[in-house]
Amino acid sequence: MTFTPQRLRLLTGATLPDGSVVDVTIDGETVVKIETAGSSSPSAGSPATGDPAVLDLRGFVLLTAPADPHAHLDKALSWEAIRPPMGDLVSAITSWREYARTMTVDDIATRAREQILRMLANGTTSIRTHVDILLGDEPLRGAEALVRVRDELRGLVDLELVALAGPDVPDADIEAALDLGVDLVGGSSHLAPDPSADLQRLLAIAARRGVGVDLHTDESLAGAITLDEFAETVADWTVPVSAGHCVRLGTVDAEARDLMIAAVKKADIGIIANPITNLYLQGWEHPVSMPRGLTPARQLLDAGVRLAAGADNVRDPFNPLGRSDALETTMLMVTAGHLTIDEAYTSVSDGARSVMALPEAGARVGAKAELLAVKGTSLADVTANAPADRYVIHAGRLVARSRSTVEVAVPLPDPALLTETR
Known about the structure:
The chain is about 35% helix and about 20% strand. By secondary structure, it is of the alpha/beta class.
């Protein structure tokens, strides 16, 4: 079922994460007033009026809408078609590359569109997705598909594209992707035969084009380290710069870790954790005491580094599962990353928006009206239960709504009572 995006001007009776119950006034795309629930002026309308610009949020927790800083929409929902072996990063890359030879622009666009709409229905209103620059005669198939879908869904969700280029991808193909409308330069230099040379190649392209960079960085438990050189090279840059995964940062000794974190902070690199994919891909070679495949979120936050978390891969060779729901990522940042619930949700909302260089959003005066209302009593409640009942607001408009019905059978009568009534 679909509906036309609905302009909103008043949200009533919403519970904020701090427990306060408020009315929120929206003017266009901006939150302009927050008052104690019930104190809005009569002219603003009320839930009883049937005014479509007024949304009754009694019984709902109102949050900053999630922003996903690290997706792979060109790969999403391909698991069933590929049926890859369960395994580590190299196995996933191999099976994906074999399948990618068969993909068309239409195939990629269809899966990407479906995945975006699943994420939107769950509350995500901004997505940064990596898109592979493919090998062969048609290297821009993924980029063409994602540019098409971005244009189709404009007004419902904001989509930012990163050219994901392996070390064997020619510079000309990366440049062509940027010409097509891809926004940032990406890659995975730690996997290159010469990690430093590939890192400098990608950064040189970004510098020449004046665009931002979002690199897959050191995605292994014991492999190459490039984050320190990355930080040193971009220390004076003014465009957005971020590093995804950074698993290796979580496995070096404390002294080396803290030195790299200090360099990251100085260069103002945003770090993006990807818990579900890294927990799946890392550690297969350890039959006992399997280590976490995560960046050190606690130490990064304590050092003042901008931290985000993304869902990364969803139902593809790099991760066979995933609910397309930022509350799943939130839960994993608590259980595996050992953040508080508030910190974990910030990593998928305000923290993600900061890393993505998006304007401030949420239930704050002057912020963008990018909001998610979830049925429940508190942030802990909705994170734990992930209720399906939700309202999603993008640019001040209601763009998705979900309602669920739950029925549970009554207990069967006590057999003894049945006997007595015969």
